[in-house]
C-alpha cells in the first residue's frame, strides 16, 4: 500500500508556552478538517485572550496539503505565519492548524527574535502530540431505501468508511468517506445492490 493512501496529522489539540524577554507566546495546535473550523477556533482564541496583542496562525488542509493560509496579524511580514507553517511542514502534517497568541513584554524582539519565538512555540506544541496516520478518504453520497440500511452499514463498518452526514427518512441519504485504498472494493460491493445510488463528491 502506498503512502499516498494516508496523510499525517496530530492526534489531538495541544498548548505550549514560550517566553522571551517578557513576551509570552502561547501556541495552540489543533487537528482540523475545514477552513470554517479554523475560523471558529480563531474566534474562540480571541475571546479567551482579548488582551493579547497578536493572534497569529497558519494552517494546512486537504489530504494533499494543497490548501494553506498564514497570518502575521500585525507582526512584521514573514515573522509569524510563515515560521508557524514551516514547523507544520517540517513534520509533513496536513489538516493541522497552529495559532499563537502573543502577550507583549515591553521589549522589542526584532525580526530574528520573532521568527525564533513563533517557530519555537509551534515546535513545542507539535512535539507534545503524537502524529497519526489517517486514511485518505474519497467522499461519496449514497441514496437507498431504508430497508437496505443493514447491508449498507455492514459494508461501511467492514471497510472502515466514515459517515460524515446522514438523513434518514423513507429513503436514506448518507455522505461517507471511503478510504482511498479500499475505494474499488467498496464501490463494487455497493453497486452490487442495483437500488443503491452512489455518487462521488469532489473533496473541498
Describe the structure.
The protein is of the alpha+beta class and 204 residues long. The protein has two domains: 3-133, Impact, N-terminal domain (Ribosomal Protein S5, domain 2, 2-Layer Sandwich); 136-200, ACT domain (Alpha-Beta Plaits), CATH 3.30.70. The protein is 30% helix and 37% strand. The chain is built from five helices and eleven strands; from the N terminus they run E-E-E-H-E-E-H-E-H-E-E-H-E-E-H-E. Strands 2-3-6-4-5 form a five-stranded antiparallel beta sheet, sandwiched between helices. Strands 9-10-8-11 form a four-stranded antiparallel beta sheet, covered by helices on one side. A two-stranded antiparallel sheet has the order 1-7. A hairpin with a 5-residue loop joins strand 4 and strand 5 (67-71). Helix 2 runs parallel beside helix 3 (110-127). The radius of gyration is 21 Å and the shape is elongated. The mean pLDDT is 94.
Topology:
Elements: E1 6-10, E2 14-20, E3 23-31, H1 35-48, E4 54-61, E5 67-71, H2 81-90, E6 96-103, H3 110-127, E7 131-135, E8 137-145, H4 149-158, E9 162-168, E10 171-179, H5 183-191, E11 197-200
Antiparallel strand pairs: 1-7, 2-3, 3-6, 4-5, 4-6, 8-10, 8-11, 9-10
Helix pairs in contact: 2-3
Q: What's the short version?
A:
With 204 residues, the protein is of the alpha+beta class.
- Name given to the CATH homologous superfamily of the largest domain: Impact, N-terminal domain
Strand content: 35-45%
Strand numbers in spatial order across the main sheet: 2-3-6-4-5
What is the architecture of the largest domain at the second tier of CATH? 2-Layer Sandwich
Radius of gyration: 21 Å
Number of strands: 11
CATH topology of the largest domain: Ribosomal Protein S5, domain 2
Cα-to-Cα separation, first versus last residue: 25 Å
What is the C-level CATH assignment of the largest domain?
Alpha Beta
Q: Structural class given helices, strands, pairing?
A: alpha+beta
Total individual domains: 2
Give the SSE order as H and E letters.
EEEHEEHEHEEHEEHE
User: Biggest sheet: strands, sense, closure?
Assistant: 5 strands, antiparallel
Query: So how many helices?
Result: 5
Proportion in helices: 25-40%
Q: What would the principal axes of the Cα set say about the shape?
A: elongated
The stretches of 5 or more residues where confidence is low (pLDDT under 50) are none
Average of the residue pLDDT scores: 94
Amino acid at each position: 500500500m502506498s503512502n499516498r493512501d494516508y496523510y499525517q496529522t496530530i492526534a489531538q489539540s495541544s498548548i505550549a508556552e514560550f517566553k522571551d524577554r517578557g513576551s509570552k507566546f502561547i501556541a495552540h495546535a489543533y487537528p482540523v478538517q475545514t477552513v470554517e473550523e479554523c475560523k471558529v477556533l480563531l474566534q474562540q482564541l480571541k475571546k479567551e485572550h482579548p488582551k493579547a496583542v497578536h493572534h497569529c496562525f497558519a494552517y494546512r488542509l486537504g489530504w494533499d496539503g494543497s490548501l494553506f493560509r498564514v497570518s502575521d496579524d500585525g507582526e512584521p511580514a514573514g515573522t509569524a505565519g510563515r515560521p508557524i507553517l514551516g514547523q507544520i511542514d517540517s513534520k509533513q502534517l496536513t489538516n493541522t492548524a497552529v495559532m499563537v497568541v502573543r502577550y507583549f513584554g515591553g521589549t522589542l524582539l526584532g525580526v530574528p527574535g520573532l521568527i525564533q519565538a513563533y517557530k519555537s512555540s509551534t515546535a513545542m506544541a507539535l512535539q507534545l502530540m503524537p502524529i497519526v496516520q489517517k486514511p485518505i478518504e474519497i467522499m461519496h453520497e449514497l441514496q437507498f431505501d431504508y430497508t437496505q440500511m443493514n447491508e449498507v452499514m455492514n459494508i461501511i463498518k467492514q471497510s472502515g468508511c466514515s459517515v460524515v452526514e446522514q438523513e434518514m427518512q423513507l429513503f436514506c441519504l448518507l455522505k461517507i468517506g471511503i478510504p482511498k485504498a479500499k475505494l474499488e472494493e467498496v464501490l463494487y460491493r455497493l453497486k452490487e445492490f442495483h437500488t443503491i445510488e452512489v455518487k462521488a463528491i469532489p473533496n473541498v
